[in-house]
Design brief:
Low-confidence stretches: 14-28
Strand content: 15-25%
Number of strands: 12
Mean pLDDT: 93
Helix content: 40-55%
Largest sheet: 6 strands, parallel
Strand order of the largest sheet: 2-1-3-4-5-11
Number of helices: 11
Bound molecules: beta-D-galactofuranose
């Protein structure tokens, strides 16, 4: 009889323990901020660093439950993900938009559901800017203007300030803010210089494979290029492979100047070697700023509409192996 009583007691203690931990779990879930994050894809080193930065910042230790969706560079997938987040009743939606347009309806649905939205990275072009709480990202036009100004000075320093310059322009994903603004900077720079010409504009979709493919195909019939203006590093890596195959030299000791955007670690390595002439930084580390904005929102504080990340630009003259090895991306 005693054995039955002791077994029953053990069972009751076990039941109570499990019940508490489940309640604690439930309680701890209740205390977490549930964030639905629609990331546009995983197309580049930059995107991987951006995802890692946000995932690390919006961790359970920091008070979050993060629901993550990778849209594989397809806006329809992002619209589906956001609608799922709304159905799940998340507390906040974070959107890294593939393209600028096409967001009005789904952001109206989020607003109707009382779910605030924060934009990271690229911009959204919407009728009502109140459809999102704030944006964290880069000034892409400034990035392009830095590149164009640097190219002008570089050519003068080489004694080529008045020479006819043919520029091969490798664009990122059409309709993305990074592409729109980096392209605008180049086109405005060319418009102001009678001796600069954009020989061709190729769409590399921010991927290494596509960057390689479009430059390889172009070089089959055209090799009279002085500059490659590539809107991200992964497309630049592809272009470098195509140049190698075509037997064309590039970089500080080559016939073709290469300008690249993002400044991920691998690109900085090539820059230090003199293979890429200019790396314009596009800072993907949005996580800490995003955590700060969300916490400010929950503290009832007003948050800035636009938060710009700090960025620089690099040539082999301001790089070192130690600096590159210590980079976070
Ligand atoms: C820029 C970002 C761009 C990067 C690319 O903020 O949107 O998309 O430049 C990435 O590497 O694919």
């Amino acid at each position: 009889m005693k054995r039955i009583i002791s077994l029953a007691l053990c069972f009751l203690i076990l039941l109570f323990a499990v019940g508490c931990s489940a309640a604690e779990d439930e309680k701890s879930d209740d205390n977490l901020i549930v964030v639905g994050f629609s990331q546009l894809g995983s197309e580049s080193d930059w995107r991987a660093a951006n995802t890692q930065s946000i995932s690390l910042a919006l961790s359970e230790e920091n008070g979050y439950k993060l629901l993550f969706d990778n849209a594989k560079q397809n806006q329809e997938n992002q619209l589906m993900a956001i609608r799922n987040f709304i159905l799940q009743g998340v507390d906040i939606i974070v959107l890294a938009p593939a393209a600028e347009t096409g967001w009005d309806n789904v952001l109206l649905e989020a607003k109707a559901a009382g779910i605030p939205v924060i934009i990271v990275d690229r911009e959204v072009s919407v009728e009502d800017e109140n459809l999102y709480m704030g944006r964290i990202g880069s000034d892409f036009l400034k990035e392009g203007e830095i590149a164009v100004s640097w190219l002008g000075n570089k050519l003068v320093s080489l004694g080529r300030g008045t020479e006819q310059i043919n520029i091969l322009h490798v664009k990122g994903t059409d309709g993305s803010t990074a592409q729109i603004m980096r392209t605008r900077a180049l086109e405005e720079g060319v418009a102001g210089r009678s001796n600069w010409t954009i020989a061709a504009q190729l769409s590399g979709e921010f991927t290494e494979a596509k960057g390689y493919e479009v430059v390889r195909d172009y070089l089959k019939t055209n090799t009279d290029i002085d500059v490659i203006y590539s809107e991200n590093d992964n497309m630049t890596f592809g272009a470098m492979r195509a140049l190698d195959e075509a037997g064309l030299t590039y970089g500080e000791n080559g016939e073709i100047i290469i300008i690249s955007f993002d400044a991920v670690r691998e690109a900085l390595g090539y820059c230090l070697e003199g293979k890429i002439n200019l790396c314009v930084e596009c800072n993907p580390l949005h996580g800490a700023l995003l955590d700060q904005l969300i916490k400010q929102y929950y503290a009832g504080e007003s948050i800035p509409k636009y938060t710009y990340v700090e960025e620089a630009y690099f040539t082999r003259d301001n790089l070192s192996l130690e600096f590159i090895e210590n980079r976070l991306y």
